[in-house]
Amino acid sequence: MMNKTVAWTVAICAILFSLFVLGGAKLHAEKEAAAAYFYQGENQDGLSIDHDLQQRAAAAYNLYTVASRYLPAENDALRRLLADREALLQAESPADKFRADQELGQSALNVYAALNGMALSEQDQFYRNNLLQQMDSSAATISHDGYNQRAREFNALRQGFPARIIAWLWRIRQLEYFS
Predict the structure, then answer these.
(1) Residues 125, 161: one domain?
(2) Which residue range is the domain that position 105 belongs to?
(3) Which of 15, 117, 141, 155 has its Cα between 20 and 30 A from that of 126?
(4) 112 and 173 in a common domain
(5) Is 18 helix (H, G, I), strand (E, B) or coil?
(6) At residue 150, what are phi and psi to the nearest 5 degrees?
(7) In whole numbers, what is the pLDDT of the chain averaged over residues?
(8) Residues 125 and 57 in one domain
(9) Distance between CA atoms of 93 and 87, rounded to whole angstroms?
(10) What average pLDDT score do residues 142-171 get?
(11) 55 with 135, same domain?
């Protein structure tokens, strides 16, 4: 009778250990893999939303450089473009990066429009158009990225049983969406 009780106790402890300790480590690893998708891309090759946001920030800065040859330094659209670029570069979470990117896109359009009708050099006119096209291209690439789907899959996994309990014990939060 005593051996049976000990055996059951050991078995239950082993099950609880594997469920909550090993399960927590696995859930944490799943979250890290899904989060890495945002920064490293599907194939872990760096082609990711974060990479495309860096491309948009670089194009915005180049647009600022071109526009600063024609617009005064105190121009609101020009100052806003630089501030929004910096906000994007400083944003940390996917949701914050999304909001900053939306602002940057609008600021770039405002600077582009502010240059309408100005006597730009042929080269600067080419740069102006090309830089906006680069930003649009990166935005299109971002819109087809699978990060949000990966985040949804992780969040659905985290909401299941017993993952919800494990997530609570390990303090594993849901992933933010890039939206």
Answers:
(1) no
(2) 49-144
(3) 141
(4) no
(5) helix
(6) -65, -40
(7) 91
(8) yes
(9) 12
(10) 92
(11) yes
One domain for residues 62 and 92: yes
* CB contact at 8 A, 28 and 17: no
Domain count, the chain: 2
| Terminal Cα-to-Cα distance of the chain (whole angstroms) | 59
The answer to whether residues 36 and 112 belong to one domain is: no
Which of 111, 123, 101 is closest to 52 using CA atoms?
A: 101
8 contact partners, CB below 8 Å, separation of at least 6: none
User: Is 9 found in the same domain as 84?
Assistant: no
- Identify the band that residue 114 occupies on the pLDDT scale cut at 50, 70 and 90: very high
CATH of residue 79's domain is 1.20.120.230
Is pTM beyond 0.90? Reply is no
User: Measured between alpha carbons, how far is residue 139 from residues 56, 70, 119 in Å?
Assistant: 8, 26, 29
- Model confidence at 1, pLDDT cuts 50, 70, 90, reads low
- The per-residue pLDDT for 59 is 98
Burial class (CB in 10 A: 0-12, 13-18, 19+), 59: buried
